[in-house]
Amino acid sequence: MFVAENVHSGEVVDIEHKRNLYRVIVGDAGVKLATQEADLAAGSRAKTGEISTAGKAVQPHVPTSMKLEAFIALPETVDIAAQIEAQTRSVDALRQAGALRARPALSEFIIPSLPEDFTGLLARTIDDIAQDAEQRLSAHLAARGMAASGGNWIADGLSHAVDTCPFCGQDIQGLPLIAAFRAVFSERYKALTREIAAMKAGVERDMGDAALARLGTVAEQNNGGVEFWQKYCAIEAPALALPTGAVEAIRALASAAIELLDRKATVPLEPITPNEGFITVRAAYGGAAAAIEAANTVIRAANVVIADKKAVADAGDLKAAEAELIRLTAIQTRHRADVSELCATYTKLSGEKDAIETRKEAIRNQLDAHTKTVVKPYERRINDYLAAFNSGFTITETKHAYPGGVATSSYQLVINDTTVDLGDSKTPGDRPSFKNTLSAGDRTTLALAFFLAHLERDPVAVGKLVVFDDPFNSQDAFRRRQTVHEIMKVAGKCAQVIVLSHDATFLKQVWDKSPPAERVALTIADHRAQGSKIMPVDLEHACRGRTATDVDDLQTYLTSGAGGLLDIIRKMRVVLETHCRTTYPGSFLANDWLGDMVRKIREGGDAHPAQALYDELDQINGYTSQYHHGENMADATPDQIDPSELTGFTKRTLRIVNALQA
Predict the structure, then answer these.
(1) Which of 108, 397, 395 is nearest to 225 (CA)?
(2) What 8-state DSSP symbol labels residue 418?
(3) Burial, 337: exposed, middle or buried (Cβ in 10 Å; 0-12, 13-18, 19+)?
(4) Distance CA 553, CA 49 (A)
(5) 422: helix, strand or coil
(6) What is the pLDDT of residue 457?
(7) Distance between CA 285 and CA 249 in Å, rounded?
(8) Closest to 652 measured CA to CA, from 560, 547, 573
(9) Confidence of residue 138 (pLDDT cuts 50, 70, 90)
């Protein structure tokens, strides 16, 4: 049981053997620490399962480009919605960099206004006309009732008057009144009328329907531009629009100005004073112009933002911007109430696992320190036993590790100064390992060394019962004798030792070394229908007539091939004859040889007590008789004996006498 659990099973040393062996090596104090460490490791694994479940609950909310831990660690941000909105526009802008580059900025409104000298023109007269000429003209016009528009009538008539009057044909040369007319209606007069007409045309051009239509066009274009740019920039649309009533205020001012210019054109020489109506519409226009300028100020600021956005779009990193948008969106999701609760659960479980890991690490450190104090002495003691058993190998590099989180021990074999790893069940057959470098006897010897070293270090072995079950399996004669010696040493330290074996000769060797008052020999006897019974057995009688050395020699040949072939054949017959006489004393005579015994069993049929052995005995007799018949051995030579065939018959012989080691 000790060997199968802690050393090897058959030809293989697996992970469970290494785990159990570690506990054997470190002893009770180490086992206590190892148990604590294993319990904490199990708790950590269980907590890992809970964390995994909690993580799976959070994972659907985590962006694919972000790790779970990074998502949970995202800090809460107060204005996250605004940041997401701004970053969304930035990402859209980078995606539409070409369209942004081609899209024009917003247009400012051109504010139409009256000419700067408008009121000055209305007030102007022809100040270089002679005083007397002006008086004559005024008196003449007043006398004939032509004050309102007579000047224009006279001015038109002068162009037809050269030397004579265009009405009566009389000579007008040298007339003072005509000179006065010519002085008044000179080129300067004509220039004034032209200025009045030009100013009226300018007002109609700059403030008329066409100009107002252009303002409407700019307003519509800006509306479209604002709708576009608002996708990428923070722009206040209402502040950018053409102020309500601005067009009507401009139109009203233009109409009032034209009316005044028309009056001035009627009496160019008279100053025209703006009336209350003009003053009112001009004040309304002033408010409208200020509102338009305010809109233009906002438009200029928006154009700065647009220019910056274009520059950013041209030089920006779309992937980085998208990553930042993902991060901001993740922050918003992370701190949503339902997700925040899931993250809190994950964080709590992770903290609990960290606490377990901290305690486990502390226990493991203690365990490592303890292990270092016991591993090397244990290794040395095992090698002492291997040397005592005269084995051709030792162990080295005994150390521990934690594969799968569980403490294990491992070591290497040293064979002919070459280290060999233990390997496991999956180790290829062409690679040196435990299963293909040690014989069955070597494996038994190593296992026994581990067991004996363990007993030596067991502080409570004195109160224990120790069982050796076929401890000499596949060992040669020397190792068998050493095994008997070691068993007797154990018997002197423990409460009781039980040795189980099919080999009565081996048991007789143990019996002979045991104090008579402290030994007892028992056997498991087959009572057919009544089953098996444990009964006292006389080892002296059981071994009477048998040569223990012969059995040892047969076992040694089976194990190592040592011995003379003809000698082995002779000993096979002797061992079988002795076994049959001892086991079935009433069925065979003292002088019966193996051939006689086979014949008697055949003649006795099913009623003969040894009937179950007939086939085996008959075949072994037939094989050995050709070399051992009578006294004539002259014809048999070693060259005629097949070692493989002899090995098979040797094994069958030992099985019959219950001396074949399993």
Answers:
(1) 108
(2) E
(3) exposed
(4) 60
(5) coil
(6) 81
(7) 5
(8) 573
(9) low
The band of 497, judged by pLDDT with boundaries at 50, 70 and 90, is very high
Distance (Å, rounded) from C-alpha 324 to C-alpha 315?
A: 16
User: What's the rounded Cα separation, in Å, for the pair 592 and 603?
Assistant: 15
At 130, the pLDDT band (50, 70, 90 cuts) reads: very low
**Residue 430 CA to its chain's centroid (Å):** 38
- Return the SS3 of 102: helix
Q: How far is CA 307 from the centre of its chain?
A: 43
The single residue listed with the structure tokens 């162990």 is 395
Three-class secondary structure of residue 329 per DSSP: helix
Strands (E), 470-603: 496-500, 522-526, 532-536
Q: Which residue has the tokens 């996708």?
A: 231
DSSP SS3 for 319: helix
Strand 418-421 and strand 465-469: the pairing is unpaired
Q: Are 566 and 636 in contact (CB under 8 A)?
A: yes
Average pLDDT over every residue of 587-605? 90
- Residue 46: pLDDT band (50, 70, 90) is very high
**What is the total residue count of the chain?**
662
Q: What is the pTM of this model?
A: 0.45
More confident residue, 102 or 598: 598
Half-sphere exposure of 44 (CA within 13 A, CB side): 17
H helix count then E strand count, the chain: 26, 7
Give the residue carrying structure tokens 């206040």: 236
pLDDT of residue 127: 58
Placement of tokens 């409570």 in the chain: 460
Cβ atoms of 7 and 385 closer than 8 Å? no
Task: Average the pLDDT over 297-318 and give the result.
Answer: 81
Task: Quick: pLDDT tens for 199-209.
Answer: 889 888 988 88
29: burial class by Cβ within 10 Å (0-12, 13-18, 19+)? middle
Distance CA 44, CA 593 (A): 72
Residue position matching structure tokens 């109430």: 337
